[in-house]
Specification:
The structure is a single chain. With 324 residues, the protein is of the alpha/beta class. It has ten helices and eight strands. The strands form two sheets. The chain has a five-stranded mixed sheet, with helices on both faces. A three-stranded antiparallel sheet has the order 1-2-3, with no helix packed on it. β7, α7 and β8 form a beta-alpha-beta unit. The protein starts with a strand and ends with a helix.
Length: 324
Amino acid sequence: MYLWKQNKDCSVYKCDNDKCPVYLSKTNKLNFGERLLRTVKSSQFKLRYQYREYHFTNEQLAHSAPQPYSNITNIRNSLNTLALILTFHVSFAISARKTAYLLREVFKIRLSYQSVLNYCEMAAHHCHKFNIQNKGDVDKFQAGDETYIKINGAHNYTFFFISAKNLKITAYHIDSTRGTLPAAIAIKEAIRTADPNLKIFLITDGNPSYQNAIHFLNQLLENKLKLKNVIGLQNLDSVSTRYRPFKQLIERLNRTYKFHMRAAAGFSSKNGAVALTTLFVTFYNFLRPHMSLDYKAPVPLEFLNGFDTLQGRWAALLQNAIAL
């Protein structure tokens, strides 16, 4: 084999032996039309055996997590005030400046917009641990995709995976690229709480990073991950026809996420983006009612049943998150 391609994630080696069993098997499966096309566009066919050597290890697959601005016990306001900030800024997608204005003009609570952002970063640190610990089991069908956000004027990408059965977000990871490493990080977290004997189907678009990430993870998981690509906007093949509804789930999640990020108008730091994304996932999984779930949250929490306001549920959830 010879080195065919190389990037920061992996090196790809290709076998050029015309008597290779893989090459002969794939060549024999070509129909007459494909054999004719191959004489003109041979690059359209992947017939040679390839081996990928990855430049990262399983230990490097660390999910993005927000870092606290300060200890949450140092805030000079009550837990109810913090819960009110999260209700406006996260749940209702109101900007930090408007949130500070509402607090001042309606509730006579004087806070700067920067304090609103700092409070959110402190809360996100605890909410991330709560999200990870209370995600629960996942089913065998999960849809994944990445959507872009702006950090310091540059494109970064949020990788999401959503469980098809109960519509909960199973992974959220932010990275500066759409490469194999961030895709592997998101997939590893998405399947972390799955039954060890469960064969999992991941539905994504045609981004090759997902295929490469699954190839890497299957070396550790005994091939229990299966990828289904839904290509384009039309169902031009049987796989797209079968799995299009799952892909639409993640597209709707991306749309909801964009709505909640729009008020931020971009981020000045990655930590700010990770913090708001973490709080969005907390709201989406534990507090936001879904019509398709009979107006219940994807992950119902018994200790929230006695609260009839969103502010009260945020406060109760924060108490439990801080106690972890």
